[in-house]
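fyi for ur records
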Amino acid sequence: MARTLFGLIAAFAVGLVFGIGLAVSGMMNPAKVLGFLDFAGNWDPTLGLVMAGALIAAAPGFAIARHRRVPVIGGEFEIPTTRTVDAPLIVGALLFGIGWGLVGFCPGPAIAAAGTGLPEVYVFVAAMTAGMALFRLYSVSRSRN
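which gave:
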């Protein structure tokens, strides 16, 4: 993606709106997420409603993008070219799901919740960052072999 000033401002604005949406919807609260995952207990459908709202809001943008050659802001579309379900994808999805179910955070809400100052958020973000760094090291060493 081209690093133009307009592109950076647009990325910041989109991230800000996303963070505000997470805060307003309560998705920065791990208890809300864990309540959604608690089908056998006191189930809270709020997360499902937020996801449905996100899909409804995003669908027109994806429909428009499908008919464009380049993004409005510049650069190029980065669309995955493979549809292969392989072991790294499955392991990554399992790790993501287990982590999400254990602590109630996924990356976006955790970063947004970092502004709350809660120590558990910082621990999660640090662990997430370490996991990404380990994956990067593993990927680089694997590609050299």
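The chain has one domain: 5-144. thats all i got for now
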